[in-house]
Amino acid sequence: MTNETATKCAGCGVAIQTESPEKLGYTPPAALTKETVLCQRCFRIKNYNEISSVTPNQDDFLKILGGIGEKRALVVHIVDLFDFEGSLIAGLHRFIGQNPVILVVNKIDLLPKAINVNRILNWVQKQAKENGIRTSEVVLCSAKKNIGFDRVIEAISSYRGDRDVYVVGATNVGKSTLINRIIREYSDLEAELTTSPFPGTTLDLVQIPLDDGRYMIDTPGIVYSHRLTEIIDKQDLKTVLPDKPIKPSVFQLNEKQTLFFGAFARFDFVQGQRQSFTCYVSNAVPIHRTKLDNADDLYAAHKGEMLSPPTADRIGDLPPLVKHAYRIPKGSSSEVLISGLGWIAVNSDAGAQIVIHAPKGVKVAVRSSLI
């Protein structure tokens, strides 16, 4: 569409465009003939009670957060437990001021069943504090499996008072799933959404009316390019993103052995006593063990084939792997994470020198053990 013919969505106010379904304001060309023109996002909420992901650039997202700081609001920050560091908005209070925050940690169902929930909760609280987030409450949940969902609703009711509720989070954290569940929980909300245009007036917010005249505001998911899930082909997401509890893979390694995670990443045990390493990645990600001396040649010869995904036709789109070297101190309880892929736990008291090879730009870090 040209600027001369552009119109605005009657629901959220975004400028309508017909070229890019993944961008804000998309609507099929045939919909332009209708008396009321809605973008695809608002159309799906209105007709199917479904909120779809829309992704602004990071500068626009930070402007949205800054706007929250000027209002009396309750902020519900949804993060992905499987990629906690990759989905957390560090320094959130710099943008939202003193507004209270409920940290909703989604996808708890992906962890192995034999977990200590209190340990996970304490770990999350510690990590949030270290990243500059002051939480009124932390709720562990699974929107998909309806675990902890009642507590999410109770926490929102307890802390919002006369405030609007802003829901923020990165892409692929389950934000839309959670909001869709809230909509389905309340029949009065559902009736409102299926009969009325939405009162949002900015291009990137959808306001969902609550029963007391306040609103739940859905903000578009922010894209963090440091997550592997944001740079790989969509066909490979179903492999990397787990959809069932993770089955940890334990490897007893001698020094100078290597683990490949498909062709996405590589773990080198460079030096240390023989010890075990536990890999927490999607069950669909194949792990291949080899000798460190052979690793470079193996990757060059077999990436996209024996080492896949990505497959040969998509391996060229993956950024080159870069090295991240770490020394894990003796006696520490540590994990090394690859954002969007998972993490590897160092299980021995002996310490280790390791190197992670991950696509350029993907976040790699050492953290205290989650499990």
Describe it.
The protein is an alpha+beta fold and 371 residues long. It has 3 domains: 1-48, no CATH class; 58-218, Rossmann fold (3-Layer(aba) Sandwich); 229-368, no CATH class. The chain is built from 10 helices and 16 strands. It has helices at residues 40-48, 58-68, 84-87, 93-96, 117-130, 149-160, 175-185, 187-195, 234-240, 292-302; strands spanning 73-80, 101-106, 137-140, 164-169, 206-209, 215-218, 249-253, 257-261, 265-271, 275-281, 287-291, 321-328, 334-338, 342-346, 352-359, 364-368. It is globular, with a radius of gyration of 22 Å.
Characteristics of this structure?
371 residues, five-stranded antiparallel beta sheet, 3 domains, 10 helices, alpha+beta
Question: Nutshell version of this structure?
Answer:
This protein has 371 residues and is an alpha+beta fold.
CATH class of the largest domain: Alpha Beta
Name the CATH superfamily assignment of the largest domain.
Answer: P-loop containing nucleotide triphosphate hydrolases
Spatial order of the strands in the main sheet? 3-2-1-4-6-5
Order of helices and strands: HHEHHEHEHEHHEEHEEEEEHEEEEE
Category from helices, strands and their pairing: alpha+beta
Integer tally of domains: 3
How does the major sheet shape up?
A: 6 strands, mixed
Mean pLDDT: 85
Beta content: 15-25%
C-alpha Rg, in Å? 22 Å
Low-pLDDT parts are 1-5, 189-203
Helix content: 10-25%
Distance between the termini: 51 Å
Number of helices: 10
